[in-house]
Design brief:
single chain; about 120 residues; alpha+beta; about 30% strand
Length: about 120
């Protein structure tokens, strides 16, 4: 009985090894990957952070960065505004493996945190 089980298991393993060409292909060249699309138009996104939904707006800036505004936060939430803006920039506008970094310090005006950031 033990020998039959071993033979069946061995047969199943061999059956899994097929010679079909529909499986994985191996190539020698460098894959042609299109670069990530960088955000070129103004954008507005709702962002869920610490149990609340905030609105983030960002638009390309002539300096090469993005003019950003976070609404729905109080004047005491500067750290939260920085965290939301840099992570949102990374998520919605930066190329893969880049992160958002502030170019200007956040300023609270008209019930919005405003700052300029770029991808690094």
């Amino acid at each position: 009985m033990k020998h039959i089980f071993i033979l069946v298991a061995f047969a199943l393993v061999l059956a899994g090894c097929s010679q079909s060409t529909s499986g994985v292909r191996i190539t020698q060249g460098v894959p042609q990957v299109s670069p990530a699309v960088v955000q070129a138009a103004p954008k507005s996104e709702p962002v869920f952070y610490n149990g609340k939904v905030y609105q983030i707006n960002f638009a390309p800036d002539p300096s090469g960065g993005y003019a950003m505004a976070v609404s729905g936060m109080s004047a005491a939430q500067q750290k939260d505004a920085v965290a939301v803006s840099t992570s949102s920039l990374r998520q919605f506008a930066c190329k893969e493996k880049q992160s958002g970094k502030l170019l200007t310090q956040p300023v609270y005006s008209d019930s919005k945190w405003r700052m300029t950031a770029h991808c690094v």
